[in-house]
Amino acid sequence: MDYMTLKEAGEKWGVTPRWINYYCSSGRIPGAVKMGTVWLIPKNAEKPIDGRTKKARSNRNGK
To answer: Which superkingdom, per the lineage (predicted)?
Structure first.
């Protein structure tokens, strides 16, 4: 399986590597593994939905 780093995922998804780190540590990216101090994210992983947006909140509530 091919993996990408936090920086590569951040560039691909348009968010900072810090957000990617948060997503990984909270288990929101399936297949992400931590090797020592580095997170490895599958290249085919989808960006998690940002729960802070109005659209994401409405999807979560089933509306």
So the answer is: Bacteria
Q: What is the pLDDT of residues 18-44, one digit of tens each?
A: 999 999 999 999 999 999 999 999 999
Mean pLDDT (the chain, rounded): 88
The CB density around residue 55, as the number of other CB atoms within 10 Å, is 9
The pLDDT of residue 17 is: 94
DSSP strands (E only) in 1-63: 3-4, 33-35, 38-42
Q: How far is it, in rounded angstroms, from Cα 55 to Cα 36?
A: 36
Please identify which residue in the block is written with the tokens 């290249």. Answer: 43
- Long-range CB contacts (within 8 A, 24+) of 35-40: 38/5, 38/6, 39/5, 39/6, 40/3, 40/4, 40/5
